[in-house]
Structures are given as structure tokens and as C-alpha cells.
Amino acid sequence: MSNKAGDPTVAHLVELAISRLESLATLPCVAAAAIHQLFHSQQSPSQLADIIESDPAIAAKVLSLIAQQGVNLDEENFPIRATIERLPVSAVREAILSVKTYPPFGQDVDKTVLRKQFLQHCIAVGCCAKDISELFYPEINPQLAYYAGLLHDIGALAVDQAMPRSFSSIVEQAKSEKATLRSIEHKHLGTDHTIIGKRLAQKWQMPEQITLAIWLHHSDTATISQSMPEAKIAQVVRLADAIARHYNIGQSGNYDTPDSPEEIAKSLSTNTVQLKQIAQNAAEQVEHKAGLLGLELPDGSSKYGETMQTAAAQLAREATKLSCEIRELQTTSSSFEFITEFLSSIAASDTAISIAENLAAIWQRFYQTGPVCVYLTVAGEPQILKAVVIESPSQRKSVPLTAPSELPVAMCPTAKGFAVLDAEQCADWLFEQIDVKFEPSRTKLIPLSCGGKTIGAIVFELRQPAETKQLQESLKSAALTVGIILAIAHAKEQQQHFAEQFVQLVTTARASRPQLQPPVGAEAEPQPKPDISLEALAEMAAGAAHELNNPLSVISGIAQLLAETETDPKKRQLLKQVQENTTEISQIIDELMSFAAPPAPRPKQTNIRQILDEAIELTKQKHNLERLDVQIETNKAVENVFADSAQMASAIANILCNSLESYPEQVGAIRITTNGDQSGDFVRVRIIDFGCGMDRETLQKAVMPFFSAKPAGRRRGMGLARAARLIQLNNGSVNITSQPGVGTTVTISLPRK
């Protein structure tokens, strides 16, 4: 390289070489300390701050990272530690690992010692700058001053990294001539480390005040700062550099005579004792940070090699873990796509077997399988199965199956609720009954279950070989979701089955009783007690409620768990609808149970007026009303009845609610009278409204459970049915007369003793 002073070609080549640097190089021992901390088991970004604050190369890289992440460092408030805590751990790790190291092998001892001394000088200047700003420049943030001092000679570090032989020659010449580093740099390079440092600081987007300190710390900062106040930080760094050089803390590469303590003290309006204290504090901090960085090691190469081996091993473990997580995410994504397509194919009116047919077709297309068979159990028929078979997209058929006398393996729930079984070992009975050619050795069977109860299975022939474990990972989410959906459809069909039986029994019970509506004007006699058909109805309803509640609670619980972990809003809404619908069905079952198996009555002598007052209060609560327009006329000769007062109040409240609903705005007059009957054994309570009334056909069905003359979205129609049930349990009877447009009269007969 030419030695001609001011050679522009040389300066251009130097700047070109420096501009290619993406980061500064650090010592191997420093890199080892940083990497060890980086991969420490309790590592967090803030714990790395001690290392970052002790090495110019790493500090410069992290400041550049902060700028790249779009974090604005306020020069008045410079919270580096808090900022590092906000950065992604992966970004901090990548930044530190990208910092290069000086070649750890083949370098002479003197060069290593000089680089360590140069690093100690940078730390010392940072510590002195921090103390000076705290004591004499309160307008400058001390932490900002520290970083300006730590990084003030990054230009020299860059020259050493880019052209180490030339830099060594420059330092040796400065030493022999007792000159400044800048003056020798200009002779050899046509530029100096302050200009180079400024360019790097701008390239790496460092805060402006740090850039000014790097550029101007060897200039006449006192004069410059008078017209450029932001350059005061450069004045602080110049004074800090002079203190570190005078007290021989590290080596800067400058061999001219530094400013005397008296001159520095004069510029700061202080005394030499205080300057000595600043230097002593800096020396202690340098010793502490040198220990953190491992500078006491004669050669950090071996330590660096060991640390890199450990880091490489940990990175390999993390890469393996990440690979597994990626595979799981891919599997989960595929499952979600299948589930979305499957759920989108279902309509509210679909039967379980039609859902199974959609499932089989989508399963075959999505997973590229051969023939697919889905079979389901039939309520109340343990040996009968419904099945659908998809041989190809255009070949579909439904077939009835007969399960073996002994429950097949495929119908037994597994311990974990999910398994992929070899159909060859457990589905011979299936292959014998369906006229579709499966290759048994390549056919798999997955039981479909919910809450530990298996309701069917899906059987499919693999077109491509796959390990059982791989199949279980890829199909588990899809199969569990399918099991839940089919369980809901299965429960719905069971409910319909029980409802049909329920209506049939209700019809039988009503047909066996006397006509509900007597001739106009005739006295209503007490009705007979419930016959055997009504008792059978209650028993059947209780059984239905028991059979439905268990699977519904499981379905609701699973839907809730899935919704809590689901991130897709559409899928979360579908799961929420599943949960809401199961809750709605459970409420229907609760009403059915309260009708079928109410608590046994506890009759006692009770004042009829007390029962009526309680019923009116209950009615007001149900309709959220402050008052009811009710006129009560009681006969003093018949004050008491022998009945369960709570049940009678509930029954009468249900009748009053029906009376209110007969008015368009649920506001109208209701009249209640009490009298004795001809025999003297019963008290008659008449509840009279003047609402819309009922025609003969509606009147015949008025006390049937779940009957209502109102359109969809109305109440469930259990009010009068429950009232009649409670009254009959208390040895009473109900009679209803009504005329459209005139009103309705409900006559209740209750025993007096």
C-alpha cells in the first residue's frame, strides 16, 4: 500500500474495505463468554447486558439490531437493558452469534495482548465518561455517555480487523515516533479511525450523539460544543480518554503526551483528587468486566472451541426439537383443513348416517385412500349397525351390518380414546358382510368415540405405506373431532327416538282418560288419578334423560376444551355452537326430568290464600313484573287444602304464566275464585283469563309436554303439563274450558284432607 500522505486512491480502498464489514470482530475469549451466557439454561436477554456493555463489537451489533427492530432509543432516556428485554430472544441470539472473532490460531502473543489492552482502554473510557456526565454534565444521560466512550474507537477496531498487518505497523510507528494514531493513519491510509468510525456508526444506525462522540473526540470539542451543544458528549469522551491514558488504564494506540490532570481538572472546574477517584473507579470496573470477558486467560482459543462445541450441540438439539414442532404444526394444519371441510359439509337436519357418508367421501379424497367404510351403532339394537361404503367417488352404498355376538375389538373404547388398528386382526366379520374388495393387510380401522363410549368406526385401505405411529399423529385430531360430531348426531337421533315414544305414550294416556272439556255449563268433576299409561310415560322419560345426559355432558366438555385451545375464529365459533346446543338439549332434559320424576309431595294442611300469594310472586319473578292485575275471591268456608304448598304454588304459577301469555302484551286481568265442591271433599280453584282463548283442537293438546300453539322460537310448552303433573301427584285434578276470543278457565280440584 502506498505511503504517500493523502493519497485519495488509498483512502478510497480503505473505506471500501471498511464498508463491507457487517460487524466488528471480538476476542475468542469474549465470544466464548457471550456464547456461554447466551446458551445458559436461565438465559434471558437482560442477563446478556453485562457482556454487551463490556465489549465494543457486541455492543455495536446490538445497537444496530435495536435500530433494525424499529425501536427508537431516546437519547435523554437510554434504557439499554430494558430495551434488550423487549427484543426477541432469537434476534439477540442471532446478532451475537454473527459477531466475528479475531483468528484464534496462529497469532502472536504480543498482538493478543495489545488487543486486550485496547479493549480495556475502551471500557475505561466508557466508565470515565459515565462518571463525568453524572458529576459535571447532568444534561447528558450517563448510560448514553458510557456507550459513547465504549465505542469511541470502533474505527480503529475496524482498521485492525480489515487490515491487521497495516494496523500493527501503524501502532508500532506511532509508538516509535511518540505520535497520535490519527497522524500515522493519515500518512498510510489517507484517512483516520474517527472518520471510519463515524461512517460505520451511520451505517449501523447508532444514536446521533454516539456518532458525534466517535467522530469528534480528538477535535477541539470545547470550541465546537459552544456552537453545537449536542457535541458536548464528544467533549465528555475526550476528557474520559485523557483520564484513562494518563492513569494508564489499557492502551489506546496513541503515544503522544495526554492532557495533564491539572488541565483536565481546569476544564471541568474540579480538582485532581476527584479525577483520581474517577480513574480509580474506572480501573475497578475494568478489572470486573475483564473477568466477565475472560481477559485473564492467556489464550481464549481453547475456551472458545469448547464453548462452540457446547453451543453447536445445543443448537442441534433445538433444531431437532424445532423440526418436530414444525412436523406437528404441519400435521395440525392438515387436520384443521380436513375438519373445516368436514364441518362445512354438515347441515343441521343431517342424520348420523348421512354425516357418515360425507365423512367417508371426504376422508377418501383428502387422505388419498382406497375404499372407505364408516359404520355406526343403532340405539337400542346392540347387534345392528348402519354402514356406508365409498368404493370410489361415484360408487356409494348404504348397508346394514350385524355385529358379532361377542363385542368386536373395534367397538371397544381404547384407554386413550384413540387408536389406529389393523383391520386384518379385528374386522373379518366386516369384510364378510360388505360386497367391496378391501386388501386386509393394508386396511386400517379407527374406532370413533366420545367420552369413552364408542359409537362406530372408520375403515379405510391405505394406498401408500405408513407407520402406525405416523398415522396416529396425522389422524388423531381429525378422528377425535369426527367422533364428537357423530356422537352429537347420535344423541340427537336418540332424543328423537325417545320423543316419538314419549308422544305415543302421551297419546295413549290421554285416550284412556275421560274427555277433558265437559259440556258447556256443566260442573267439572274431579278427574281420575293418573293411569298406568302416564306412569309408564314418566318411567320412560326418566330413562331417556339418564341415557342422554351422560353423552351430552361429555360432548359439551370436550367442545369447551377444544374451543379454549382453538385459534381459528370460525372453528372456535362452531365449537361454541356445539356447546350451546348441548346446553340447550340438557335444559330440555332437565324439564323432562322435572315432569317425569318430580320430588315426592309432602302434603300438609295449608291456607289456600297463602298458596295463591306465593304463586303470584313466582309469576311476577318469571315475567319480571312489578305487579299483576289479579282479583282473588276466596270462600271463608274453604280456607285450607291438604297438599304440598310449594308444588301447588309452582303449579298455579305455571297456569298464571299461561294466562298472561294469552294477552297480546302479556298484560291483562286475571280472576281467581275458591269454593268447595258438592261432596265437601275438595276445594275448587278457578283461574279465569279473558285472553285469546283456545279452539277445540288446541285444547285437547294443552297439557301435553312440549306442546305449544306458538311458532318456532317460543317457550318449550312444559308449563301446563308440569302443572297438571304436580296437581295429580297431590291427588288433585285439572279441568280446562276455553273459547277463542273469549278466554280460558282452569279449574283445579285439591283435597281438603
Write the layout of secondary structure elements.
Blueprint: H1 8-19, E1 25-26, H2 28-38, H3 49-52, H4 56-68, H5 80-86, H6 89-97, E2 100-101, H7 109-136, H8 142-150, H9 154-162, H10 164-177, H11 181-189, H12 193-203, H13 208-216, H14 221-227, H15 232-246, H16 261-268, H17 272-293, H18 301-344, H19 352-367, E3 372-378, E4 381-392, E5 395-402, E6 421-422, H20 423-426, H21 428-433, E7 443-450, E8 453-461, H22 468-511, H23 532-565, H24 569-596, E9 604-607, H25 608-623, E10 630-633, E11 640-643, H26 645-661, E12 670-676, E13 682-689, H27 696-700, H28 719-729, E14 733-739, E15 743-751
Parallel strand pairs: 1-2, 10-12
Antiparallel strand pairs: 3-4, 3-8, 4-5, 6-7, 7-8, 9-11, 12-13, 13-15, 14-15
Brief write-up:
With 753 residues, this protein is of the alpha+beta class. The chain is 56% helix and 12% strand.
